[in-house]
Design a protein that fits this description.
single chain; mainly beta; Jelly Rolls; Immunoglobulin-like; 5 domains; 5-stranded antiparallel β-sheet; 5-stranded mixed β-sheet; 1 helix; 52% strand; disordered N terminus
Length: 511
Amino acid sequence: MLVLVLVLGPVAVPFSKVFAAACTAPSTDYGTATNTITVPGTATYRLWTRMYVPDATNKTYLLEVDGAQCFTVGGGTITPATWTWVDYHSATINSKVQLSLSQGNHSLKLIGKAPGVKIDRVVAVSDLNCVPNGFGDNCDAPDDTTPPSVTLTSPTEDATLTGTANITATATDDVGVKKVEFYDNSSLLGTDTASPYEMTWDTVSVPNGTHLVTARAYDAANNVSSDSNTVTTMNGDAEPPTQPTNVKGTAVSYSSIKLTWSASTDNVGVKEYNVIRDGVPVAVISGTEYADGNLAANTSYEYKIVAIDAAGNTSATSSAVTVKTLEVGDTEPPTQPTRLNATAPSPTQVNLSWTASGDNTGVVAYDVYRSKNNGVASKVGTTTTTSFGDASVSPRTNYTYYVVARDGAGNSSPASDKVTIKTPEVIRRKVRLTGTITNTKTKKAVSYSRATITVGKSRYIYQADRRGRYAINSLNPGLYNITHSARGYKSTALSVNVTDSMTQNVKLEKR
């Protein structure tokens, strides 16, 4: 039940601009008032008007609903000069101002047709047995606290869905259902406001696996109820990766653990791995090793790994590995690395090796430092072994290296002795291009022909001997444009990729 309070009297808006087509305009404009009411559900409503009439003659007004129905309210036995509740029209008490209204908004227009008539309240009452008194508050309906009833009819529990699936639900309410929302887990898929409540769901757009589909119904008072079914989506690649194996963990410090495992395989390809610590996912990574930090000291943690492919298929969970972080309080550093040795197998590579350090809890890494031409040293890499390859060096340059060992508590050893090495220079080898120039038809040698080669902006001419033989020496490997010519012959241009010493025979055609 809703209450609409309107006071009718002369208004500023001209009568002809607000008058509705459903009512016939009175000959005299006594004023109009308009408003909108919202009803919570489809039902039959009786419209009561609280009226004041000046005398026994002037005691009616026009009430228009939704621009489609017109009632002449009042008349009959209304007592003049008193405020009276009236629910009838056409001067017949048994003709009630009563109609069916659907859930939602409706327009009311009050049009004066007699002088001195006043209206201060219009009440829409769904309880047809209620008679307003005072200001009509006695007919206020109690708040709606009853939620709708909703049933998810499709998909059914444990259904397997592929492609486009239909989601349907039934919903009822004592006042009326405002809307039904559909969810995939916590993601809103769509909303329907009219029965039958339904939508389509493209399951290709979500990962394969388990999903909770929910229908959630609301009434006008926003009471809500829901119904859910668990389903499985399966589209495209439905084959899961193999189980990750050989999971290993090492305590790197009192607050960190390093994990490694053997890669899973998949018919299409493994996309990533889910790292699970003590039953809770903590990271999703693309590789097969993970450093877990911010852990408690001297504490055991259990780890498992799950592989995931691009379609969202998940592998069986790996076997568990339990690792305990180191104790806080280790202050003893590792011993100094010794016998540091360096070799330069190429102009852009230096290889280092050394003898391992010792430690009371164990060495976890070696940091490698390098300076260039006696400059300031900086760290260039870290390794867990006793060797390191540095491929970031330049030819013909002096480099000095030393190594520092670290244990799990972060203690560092004294630096190793330094070793200095000079990388070799790049040796550029020369290649040779030779060949014989012959007549196309006679296959005889073309004596004293010329080979013209262009190198950058320079041109070089090489003369063949009387047997047509030419030789171009001391070339750098690369691509060359060479033009062969001789008097009385057409020139021939060639593009030759000279990667090593080679022979390129040429035939010239007579003009």
